[in-house]
From TrEMBL:
Keyword line: DNA-binding, Oxidoreductase, Peroxidase
Chain residue ranges for the region called Disordered: 432-481
A Pfam family recorded for this sequence: Cas12f1-like_TNB
Keyword Metal-binding: no
Entry GO MF terms: DNA binding; peroxidase activity
InterPro entries, sorted: Cas12f1-like_TNB
Domain Cas12f1-like TNB stretches: 355-416
Domain of life: Bacteria
The keyword Nucleus is annotated on this UniProt entry: no
Protein name per the record: Alkylhydroperoxidase
Compositional bias ranges of the Low complexity kind: 455-473
Organism: Bifidobacterium gallicum DSM 20093 = LMG 11596
Length: 481
């Protein structure tokens, strides 16, 4: 799908009542579609690697392979969409690596510029371009490119799937006329509709897009999604600005002192035990976890729970009083949960939060501001003291310097809010530089007030420009936050 800037697409799940013969005619396209995706993936990637950018369109004319030219166009657009979504996530990874590196400032600025344009493979012999390619290699080691071989969704645009309204009264809301592998023999399938979608169409907030997504389930069932478009909502001008922390004890804490989702970690802790025991049992009997239905079901249950809680809580927080949310580049890992669980929650949580924040921006007009999270959990909002010992317990903050105490996640969310007034939210400076800046401000303050800080001056390391940058192994992590 080619997305226009300022336009929001929504997908609505619908049901279909096609006969077995019609379903089979459509499902028969899937293997060819997947092969097609693999073919165009190679073409898109070649184009991307050699020119450094993604054109709007590539020529698929001589391809054949059982698909019509119009079907090839849809396949090609679908892979481009997958690649664009991947790039948006890669941009964050890349920025994090550059930010936490020991490169000198001008080089960092140049790399941030390249990252913002997604021009990592832009041809160039200078140091920045050479580094950009090396850092991208690192990013792609962690984040694999979208793999079309396992894609079971066919994204059909209006040229090969026309959505029509029935002329006569019927119990179906729409017909989709779909081109299949047999030339000039389209299949017409009756579609039901989604009540929420009809509501949005009726009040004019959304328009039906001439586009159909067809997902083929593992047992050969067909799951259609209808798409709508709507213009992006204008940013809100009135309301509060809230800092938000995704904490260790609560799912979210806000700078005005509310905590939400306290039950989540208790629930996850129980599931974590189940997960560890199940993995052990499977290993003992020599079964690969991914091949166990019980394991997959438990995984799905955890993912869904995290996603539902995230949506529920963010809906509560982002009520009509809020105009802006200040958030960190997030990470959900907790030292209290096992390795597998952390990986699962981290991925599910990050996806759910990113999706929800995007929706809040596009649909509700809430501004989302991201800031550098370094040391936000260890800094005292009263005196500015940064010390690991301020947070020896997960849930309690206790300043070793001035004695201030508080709920740790709420303190962190206040620090996140405060970081909004720093240039770029300090997103473009490293952890070390954040630490130095905070330590310097703290000591100036103590000097002015003549306070005694029992903790003494925190040791700082100096950030110097190394000739050999080490972007490797410095990705994410909140152990130092
Ligand atoms: Zn303090």
């Amino acid at each position: 799908m080619s997305s226009k800037p300022g336009t929001i697409y929504s997908a609505y799940h619908t049901s279909q009542w096609a006969t077995k013969t019609k379903v089979n005619a459509i499902v028969a396209m899937l293997p060819l579609w997947q092969d097609g995706l693999k073919t165009v993936a190679a073409m898109w990637q070649r184009e991307w690697h050699t020119t450094g950018k993604l054109p709007r369109w590539i020529d698929t004319k001589p391809l054949g392979g059982g698909l019509s030219q119009r079907q090839w166009d849809s396949v090609s657009r679908q892979y481009r969409g997958m690649l664009v979504s991947w790039m948006e996530l890669a941009e964050n990874r890349f920025r994090g690596i550059v930010r936490d590196s020991t490169l000198d400032e001008p080089l960092k600025i140049e790399l941030f510029r390249i990252d913002l344009k997604h021009a990592w493979y832009e041809p160039g012999d200078d140091e920045a371009h050479w580094l950009a390619r090396r850092i991208m290699k690192r990013v792609r080691h962690v984040m694999r490119l979208p793999d079309p071989a396992h894609c079971r969704t066919m994204s059909l645009d209006g040229k090969i799937a026309v959505i029509e309204q029935p002329h006569t009264a019927t119990r179906f809301r729409y017909w989709a006329r779909i081109s299949t592998l047999e030339k000039d023999r389209p299949v017409r399938i009756p579609l039901n509709t989604d009540p929420r979608m009809e509501e949005h169409l009726a009040n004019g907030t959304e328009t039906l897009a001439n586009h159909l997504q067809l997902q083929v389930t593992g047992n050969g069932k067909l799951v259609p999604h209808l798409l709508t478009t709507r213009p992006e909502t204008n940013p809100r001008e009135d309301g509060d600005v809230l800092g938000l922390d995704w904490g260790m004890c609560s799912l979210f804490a806000t700078s005005e002192g509310r905590v939400h989702g306290l039950k989540l970690y208790a629930w996850l802790k129980k599931r974590d035990e189940e997960l560890v025991n199940l993995t052990k049992a499977l290993q003992a009997s020599g079964i690969k976890p991914s091949r166990s239905k019980r394991y997959r079901n438990l995984n799905r249950r955890i993912r869904n729970y995290v996603a539902n809680e995230t949506n529920r809580v963010l809906n509560l927080i982002a009520d009509e009083q809020v105009r802006e949310l200040v958030v960190e580049d997030l990470d959900f890992r907790s030292p209290r949960l096992g390795k597998d669980m952390n990986r699962l929650v981290s991925r599910a949580g990050r996806n759910a939060v990113n999706q929800k924040l995007k929706a809040l921006k596009e649909r509700e007009g809430i501004t989302i501001t991201k800031v550098n999270p370094a040391y936000t959990s260890q800094t005292c909002p009263s005196c500015g003291c940064v010390d690991k010992r301020n947070r020896t317990k997960q849930s309690v903050f206790h300043c070793v310097c001035c004695g201030r105490t508080g709920q740790a996640d709420i303190i962190a969310s206040r620090n996140i809010l405060a970081r909004r007034s720093r240039k770029d939210g300090w997103r473009r400076i490293s952890k070390t530089q954040v630490r130095e800046q905070l330590a310097q401000e703290h000591s100036q303050r103590r000097h002015r007030h003549g306070n005694k800080c029992q903790a003494g001056t925190p040791t700082t390391s100096t950030a110097t420009a190394h000739t050999h940058p080490a972007p490797a192994g410095r990705i994410g992590g909140q152990e130092n936050r």
